User: Fold this.
Amino acid sequence: MKRLLLFVLLLVAFPPRARADEPLAVWHAYRGDEKTALEQVLAEFERREGVKVEALQVPHDAYAAKLTAAVPRGHGPHLFIDSHERIGDLVERGVVSPVPSELTPPGLFSESALAALASPAGLRGLPLALKCLALYVNEALVPVVPATLEGLGRLKLSPGVVPLAYEIRNMYFHAAVLHAFGGAQLGPDQSFGFRGEPGVRSLELVQRLIRDRVVPEEASGAVVGELFKTGKAATVISGPWFASDVGQSVKYRVVPLPTIEAAGAPMRPFLTVEAAALTPKGSGSPVTHRLLAFLAGEPGAEIRARVGRQVVALNRPPPGSDAFLAAFAAQAAVAVPMPSSPRMRTTWEPAERALKKTLSGAVTPEAALTEAARRFDDVVRPPPARRSPNGALFLLGALSLGGALWLFTRLRQGELGPALRRSLPAYGWVAHAVIGVGALVILPIAVGAGTSLFAGPQGHMHYVGLANFGEILTARGGPLLSSGSFYLVLLITLLWTIANLTLHLGIGFALGLLLSRPSLAMKPVYRVLLIIPWAVPSYVTALAWKGMFSRQFGAVSALVEACGVEPFSWWARFSTAFAANLSTNVWLGFPFMMVVTLGALTSVPKEVLEAAEVDGATRWQRLWRVTVPMVLPTMLPAVLLGAIWTFNQFNVVFLVSGGEPDGTTDILVSEAYRWAFTRQAQYGYAAAYAVLIFLLLFVSSRLMSLASREKAAA
Amino acid sequence: MNERRVSTAESVLSHLAIVAGVVFSLYPVLWVISTALSAGSAPERRVLPIPRNLTLDHVTHFLSGPHVVSQAVSSLVVSVATALVGIAIALPAAYALSRFTFVGKEAGVRLLLATQMFPMVASAVPLYIVLETLGLLDTRTGLVVCYATTSVPFAIFQLRGAFDTIPKDLEEAAMVDGATRLGAFVRVVLPAARPAIAVTGLFAFMSAYNEFILAATILGKEEALTLPVVLQRFVGEHDAAWGAFAAGSILVSLPVMLLFYVVQKNLVAGLTAGGVKG
Assistant:
């Protein structure tokens, strides 16, 4: 059994078909100049061939998900553009068809680019552009560029100017250092490569860079750009995309990355080859082949280099006049092509965690790397053994038979029949809700829950029974409270839910109480202003708050500074990272509780309060003895719903702290997401997490409502 | 009614507390606005959110997108349709839950609450396949159908709570006068529940208007994309155009804020919690 039964059923009933005469569809995630260049190439092709080409820019965050959802079912583009290592991953999911050999005339494309795209079945795509890191130098500050990294640190600069700025906590950047020490992120035998002496020495070097203030400690892409543009960074390590950000603000040139004296070798960044790949749909269409050849070959390359400033992957040097492109081409020649096996993608999370953990000073490089290797092995462990689904099918059969029998006896006894007949008119009222919610909410959930019984890569899943649950609940053989184990994450999730709910209720209730005072002036104005957080889309909120906590430019850091405390990194410690998530989510959620409180307060009769006042109850007593007990039961359902939403609040955790430091602020949903998308796409495993989350919430909400019913009855 | 003496100190204190809340709720918004109006790609570290080198570049950058008008229309059409369809499905079902007893009622309510507990992570791919089966991929209709049905459970809770507070005598009187159940529902119950319907509609509208993952997965035509997808495209793999993102965020949030302003009087009355009985 290769696929879920239901999928097969649906597919057999409605096979996907491609429409004839549809325009050629091209998907990409380009922005700015590169996007303009691509559009020009496509327009030129349309003019020459007289066919219609439709480009679609997909948000980078949704790109892989959209491709894997659409293409294997016969939808989506004829052609898409992505980096070679992601294309390698997509091959396994049936998104990519090999490029026919007649489209690669010998000598046209750069050899290293072709090598990165090679596979036993043929080329996975045609190379478009080479992307790697290089050194941007502010010419006014650094007239003569030192040849070594250590030399950069010895530059004589005015105070307030850092010698070098780059995203030092980002593994993609650190890989250049690791390669200089002779290391590799993915070992030759597909094992975790960030280990041993090269790994440790690379980490010790970046620790020194921060300690000696050669490189600022916490620098996101935006901060690096701002430092360079304002002349506060003499040099910057970044890719070709950085040029459009810098624009004309400073005079700069680009040179290959420096040598590291301690390693005795130059820094070697990863090389990614951006390529255009055929989908199965495009693979059968000759005009798509022509478009591919046009886009990757000479005519397309000319436009892409001139307009999009791309280092095109042709087997010829860029025009001599263009120093910028020449520098990147020179760097690309010594860069390390990023391995394209799926295991490579799995190295990022543990490797980057080890890097961040070391830089925060929490552990020694050795300990961090050992931990990272253990994490990697944990993710790439073999999927649970295939099991025969007969037992489960038998159980399912027996259950439905039993259910039918039960129904039948109930009907025979004559209770259910009349009851059903009496219910008929009501069924007419709920029918369309049952159908709609059933088909589009409950069915997907049921199928998703069913996935939890399977394991293996998407499209080749096999039935494993309850093995996924077994692995999760035994923490995959590790200590039950080890980092990332289900139980530890559950504890964090509970802490998260309780802390949020307390603050939501506390702030919401207090403000609701204040706003309900009859004597309060400007009530409508206040109410509108206090509700604003609710009206802002939550991903905007999350990104705005993440920015506000930034050490370099965040408003919260400015407040901290105004209080006389040196700004610190909010993501380096669990307590501060958790607090940052918490304040974001409190901001997001208190208006709901405020409005719920206002609504519930209207249900408190004035007479009762007045009677209490007559009896001599103080204001405080009236609040705690009369108002609160009367309001709470009405608010309970909303509180319950709020608790469920908070428990599954993915956006805030994922976008604000992103689990930092070291995954400690992850909650169960974000953990499930990581298993589904970053850790070898283990959908079955992620689905098992989802089912466990569901069971936890369902059981506890049942207990809560039973308890409140008992209380009401008592 | 006794005379209430409200001391000045107390009223000042409550104003202070509320103003503190207002500062908390406005500060991030002002910060986004100041980023949107400042030159450069990243803001500076400062306490007061005042734009630096005031510029409208980011705003014009966002507005100069080739299809921004049709995308805005697309967003509005999808969200309004979601609200209408969601309410239309939820209204009779909520009414039945409030007024009738029938076999499977309790189980149904429990199931509705249960749908809120299952994380989207695992149900997104199956949902895609259902839409494909229905032939609704790459269409705004498909998106509306998804959003509307996902908004139905919460809408049913809301509306059922509202119907529970409307006395049965009203419709019974109408039915004695010869109205059918449906006639009584339309002419008596619905008008009485108007605030709740408005608020529930607002929620459905908002959930559709702000969603981007499903929209990015399902829609495939540039002109038909909804605004959150367009906004998300300013965030790339290596870099992001924060200024344009901030400017877009403000512009995209405006209609919802406006709707909140219009509906806010109903908000309290409409959100009579009390629907969710597990």
In short: Chain B has a mean pLDDT of 84. Residues 68-99 of chain B form the longest helix (32 residues). Residues 8-55 of chain B form one domain.
